[in-house]
C-alpha cells in the first residue's frame, strides 16, 4: 500500500514537472484574413481612400468638364470592366460594397458583378457592369479600374507563386508582409491569391526586428527575456517572434526560449525568423538545432529575398512560414479596361 502510494506521488510529481509548450500553428497566429471586411472600420477607411474619396478628389472644384460639355445629366449608359490578360479576380468584395453604399446613392451608378473574388479569368471576360448615369460612370471609371487592376494583379502574382509549391508534400504557410503599396487592400488581395496576412497591425504580434535589436547591441537573449520576464503580456497578441541573421543568433534565441519554457514563463506561440539567410544557412541551422534538441515549441519563418524563382528551395528547408514582400511591393496591375456600351 505504501509502495503504491509512493509510486503514485512520484508519477504525479513527474507529470506536474512536464513542460507544457504553447501550440505553434501559423494558420492561427499569422492568418487574419477574416478581419479584412467592410464592417471593420479600419479596413473600410482604406477602401474609401482608394475609391469614393479618390472619386471626390478626382472631380476637383469644378467637376468633370469634358463629360459635362458633351453629355446631358440625363444620359443613361452601361459599361463593362473587360479583362485583357489572364489572371485571378480580387477586389469585387470592396467594389460591391462601395457601389451599393456610395456610388448608387450619390452618383446613380450600380455595380453588377459577373465574377467574384478567387475566380480565374481570361482575356475577354467581363468582371462587372456599371449601370446608371453616364456622368456617374465616367466619374468613377478610373477609381474602379485602378482598384480592380491592383487587387487582381496582387492576387494573380500570389496565386502563381504559391502554385510553385504544388508538388511538395509539406508546404509552408506563405504570407504577405507589411511592404505594401495599398496597405490592407494589398493584404486582402494576397489573401484571395492564397497567402496568409501575417500581422495586420503592430498590435497583432511581437516581432523583434533589426530596428529593435541594434539599439540593444543585438543582445537577442536579453530582448527575449526582457519581454517575458518584465512585462505583463497584453491581450490580443497572437505570437512572439524574433529575427536572426545567423546560426549563432538562432541558437541563442532557441536556447533562451528553452530556458524560459522550463521556467513556465512563455505563454505565447514563439517563432524564429531567418532573415535574409540563404537556403544552406537555414538547413545547417536546423541540423544544429536538432542536435541540441531545441526545436520544440518553436515555429520557424524564412524571409528576405524570396521570390517565385527560389521559393521551392526555401520551402524544402522545412520552415513553417515563408513571408514575401515581393507579393505586394513588386506586383504588376492586371490589364483591365472600361468599355461603355
Q: What would you say this structure looks like, in words?
A:
With 341 residues, the protein is α/β, with parallel strands linked by helices. It folds into two domains: 14-33 and 196-323, Aldolase class I (TIM Barrel, Alpha-Beta Barrel); 35-160 and 333-340, Alpha-Beta Complex (Aldehyde Oxidoreductase, domain 3), CATH 3.90.1170.20. It has 14 helices and twelve strands. It has helices spanning 2-17, 26-29, 41-50, 52-59, 65-70, 92-107, 134-162, 184-192, 210-213, 220-230, 247-262, 279-291, 311-315, 326-329; strands at 76-83, 87-88, 109-113, 120-121, 126-133, 173-175, 206-208, 240-244, 270-275, 298-303, 321-323, 336-340. The strands form three sheets. Strands 6-11-10-9-8-7 form a six-stranded parallel beta sheet. Helix 6 (92-107) runs antiparallel to helix 7 (134-162) and helix 10 (220-230) packs parallel to helix 11 (247-262). The termini are far apart. Residues 1-17 have low confidence and may be disordered.
CATH superfamily descriptor of the largest domain: Aldolase class I
**CATH topology of the largest domain, anyone?**
TIM Barrel
Q: What is the arithmetic mean of pLDDT?
A: 91
Strand order of the largest sheet: 6-11-10-9-8-7
Question: How is the quaternary structure best described?
Answer: single chain
Roughly how much helix do the residues carry, as a percent range?
40-55%
Count of separate DSSP helical elements:
14
Amino acid at each position: 500500500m505504501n509502495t503504491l502510494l509512493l509510486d503514485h506521488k512520484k508519477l504525479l510529481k513527474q507529470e506536474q514537472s512536464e513542460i507544457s509548450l504553447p501550440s505553434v500553428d501559423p494558420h492561427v497566429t499569422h492568418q487574419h484574413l477574416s478581419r479584412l471586411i467592410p464592417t471593420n472600420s479600419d479596413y473600410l477607411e482604406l477602401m474609401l481612400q482608394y475609391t469614393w474619396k479618390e472619386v471626390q478628389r478626382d472631380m476637383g472644384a469644378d467637376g468633370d468638364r469634358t463629360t459635362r460639355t458633351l453629355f446631358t445629366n440625363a444620359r443613361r449608359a452601361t459599361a463593362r470592366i473587360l479583362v485583357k490578360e489572364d489572371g485571378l479576380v480580387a477586389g469585387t468584395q470592396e467594389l460591391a460594397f462601395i457601389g451599393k453604399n456610395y456610388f448608387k446613392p450619390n452618383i446613380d451608378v450600380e455595380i453588377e458583378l459577373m465574377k467574384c473574388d478567387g475566380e480565374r479569368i481570361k482575356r475577354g471576360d467581363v468582371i462587372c457592369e456599371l449601370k446608371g448615369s453616364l456622368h456617374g460612370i465616367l466619374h468613377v471609371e478610373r477609381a474602379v479600374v485602378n482598384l480592380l487592376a491592383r487587387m487582381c494583379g496582387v492576387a494573380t502574382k500570389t496565386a502563381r507563386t504559391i502554385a510553385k509549391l504544388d508538388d511538395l508534400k509539406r508546404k509552408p504557410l506563405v504570407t504577405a508582409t507589411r511592404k505594401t503599396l495599398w496597405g490592407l487592400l494589398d493584404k486582402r488581395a494576397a489573401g484571395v491569391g492564397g497567402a496568409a496576412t501575417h500581422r495586420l497591425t503592430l498590435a497583432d504580434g511581437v516581432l523583434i526586428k533589426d530596428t529593435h535589436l541594434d539599439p540593444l547591441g543585438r543582445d537577442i537573449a536579453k530582448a527575449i527575456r526582457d519581454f517575458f520576464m518584465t512585462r505583463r503580456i497584453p491581450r490580443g497578441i497572437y505570437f512572439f517572434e524574433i529575427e536572426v541573421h545567423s546560426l549563432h543568433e538562432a541558437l541563442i534565441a532557441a536556447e533562451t526560449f528553452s530556458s524560459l519554457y522550463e521556467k513556465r514563463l512563455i505563454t505565447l506561440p514563439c517563432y524564429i525568423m531567418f532573415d535574409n539567410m540563404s537556403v544552406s544557412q537555414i538547413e545547417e541551422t536546423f541540423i544544429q538545432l536538432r542536435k541540441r534538441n531545441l526545436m520544440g515549441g518553436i515555429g520557424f519563418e524564412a524571409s528576405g529575398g524570396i521570390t517565385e524563382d527560389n521559393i521551392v528551395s526555401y520551402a524544402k528547408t522545412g520552415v513553417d512560414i515563408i513571408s514575401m514582400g515581393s507579393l505586394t511591393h513588386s506586383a504588376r496591375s492586371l490589364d483591365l479596361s472600361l468599355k461603355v456600351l
